[in-house]
Amino acid sequence: MSNSTPSSPRVRFAPSPTGYLHVGGARTALFNWLFARHFGGTFILRIEDTDFERSSEEMVQGILDGMSWLRLKWDEGPFYQSQRLALYRETAEKLVATGHAYYCFCTKEELDARRQEAAKAGGPAMYDRRCRTIPAQDAATRKAAGEPCAVRFLVPDGGSTSFDDAVFGKVEFANAEIEDFVLLRSDGVPTYHLSVVADDIDMRLTHIIRGADHISNTPKQVLQYRALGADLPVFGHVPLILGPDKTRLSKRHGATSVLAYKEMGILPEAFRNFLALLGWSPGPAHKEREIFSSEDLIQRFTLEGISKSNAVFDNNKLAWFNTEYIRACESQKLLPLIEEEWRAAEFTPNRTPQEILAAIDLLKPRARSLRDFAGLFRAYFSDSFEYDPPAVAKFLADDSLPPLLRELASRYATAPEFSEASAEETLRTFAAEKGLKAGALINGSRVALTGQAVAPSLFAVMALLGRDRVVQRLTDVAKPPSDG
RNA sequence: GGCGCCAUGGUGUAAUUGGUUAACACGUCGCCCUCUCAAGGCGAAGAGUUCGGGUUCGAUCCCCGAUGGCGCUACCA
Fold it and tell me: Which nucleotides of B are covered by protein (CB under 7 A)?
């Protein structure tokens, strides 16, 4: 296929700010970005805000934030369609002038009524094309007189319109099935059908990579390219992302905004890796591994790897990617993200930078999400933390334990040295003397030191916290909980 | 309803493009390790490739049909 090695392709992500950047949109953006990077092309961001009713500044910001969280940088834009209205009007007039479009004086109400009637009669719900027959001269006069009218594209009567999709192959629609769609509304604002084509031509896009929900719209666009005498770009439609019940991903399935995943403590790189593998595969290489760095993805990404069938979003797998990425990430790089979590949780650590990094090193292998660092792991970064009641119930319920821990604390306090190895030796010796199983003391100590039943190896934790804190916490837990 | 698209274990994907005991990962289950929980190691269950017909010596792969799912069917995008 000629599209396998395009030189300097130009692609775009063109979200509509009628909602936040959702998972499907993010993947479309990612694919376009990967494609551009792979072929040394240009990635353009265009905001399709021609639906003034439903678009909002807030949503635009949400999309921009989502893009930047995912580290998807665009080369040109963002362009706003709301600021390019003149181009669309010009394009519509050009189409009218060349006989490819005509003025339609039907009102929305009339149209709705006719559609309802048609539905009742079981007939096709398409526009009946009645304004086609208005002589051009009459139409121009009525328009000049101020009668409101829309501009409709004149779809050829016979034949069919087809295109060669880079993912799906040849897709063909009978022209009889395509309605004379509206290009320009009566208020002069373009519909999506017009603005995409006008912009895609104007921005010299070579490849249109977008969701498969646009397949049915494509022939309407192909028709316009032809009428405008423009070269067709390569269309590549990407299968949709579905929820676990195999219906289209929506709010019902939980998080739909990409930023919600940020809030859940997902690493952007993990999310990208996960997303890249939904509906795309690097081929046989996928058999050897699942983890692909951005460089890997860029190097391997082509349209040929895009699958035709829809994919189900699997939270489990995303969680797995996240743990893998957190574990593999250098603590130094993790730190700014963790600090962000801390700010969000209004948590302030009281440790030196070195201590913080050491703690992250120790903790990251068991972190499920970045949020753990502001929640479960507080005891490592501050002396103000909570005891998890189930943990206490599990390992500190025995009344004989607190006095023992206090005694153990005094041994640590007076030990000649304090290290991971010596801490272990001290505890095991102590346990042997008391005729106790070391495990009981270890588990109890863990809760005393961390507030949690789950933690890294106890002695590593002790070494990290340091002698003073270990002594303090082992002693404190022996006291009845109070805020005195 | 009409039109279009899709179909490999629960999920994401492989299968040198018609020749494999249909592979890998996530998830699940078991065992080992052990100081908790993860991780890690080992192992297991789970699809004869939606179903039915063809074509072929041979179909996951090609053709037809059915079924199911999804998409579009606006002066939304």
Answer: 1-8, 10-15, 23-27, 35-39, 69-77
pLDDT given for residue A480 in this prediction? 46
8-state DSSP, A309: S
Give the CA diameter of chain A: 108
DSSP string across A226-264:
HHHTPPP-EEEEEPPEE-TTSSBP-GGGS--BHHHHHHT
- Which ipTM score applies to this complex? 0.94
- Stated pTM of the model: 0.94
Q: Given the structure tokens 């397949």, which residue do they identify?
A: A215
Q: Distance from residue A306 (CA) to nucleotide B65 (C1'), in Å? A: 28
**A204 CB less than 7 Å from any atom of strand B:** no
What burial letters (b/e) apply to A97-126, b meaning 16+ CB within 10 Å? eeebbbbbbbeeeeeeeeeeeeeeeeeeee
Please give the Cα distance from A121 to A119 (Å, whole number). Answer: 5
| Contact by Cβ (8 Å): A232, A222 | yes
**Closest nucleotide to A185 by C1' from CA:** B75
Q: Is A382 helix (H, G, I), strand (E, B) or coil?
A: coil
What does the block give as tokens for A356?
A: 């913080």
CA distance A451 to A394: 12
Out of A251, A308, A333, A394, pick the active-site residue.
A251
pLDDT category at A77 given cuts 50, 70, 90 is: confident
Q: What are phi and psi of A21, to 5 degrees?
A: -70, 110
Mean pLDDT of A449-453: 93
Three-class SS of A8-53: CCEEEECCCCCCCCEHHHHHHHHHHHHHHHHHCCEEEEEECCCCCC
- pLDDT digits over A81-118, tens only? 999 999 999 999 999 999 999 999 999 999 998 988 88
Judge whether residue A321 has pLDDT over 80.
yes
Q: Using alpha carbons, list the distances in angstroms from residue A141 to A93, A144, A148, A185, A294.
A: 15, 5, 12, 18, 58
- The half-sphere exposure of A177 on its side-chain side, counting CA atoms within 13 A, is 10
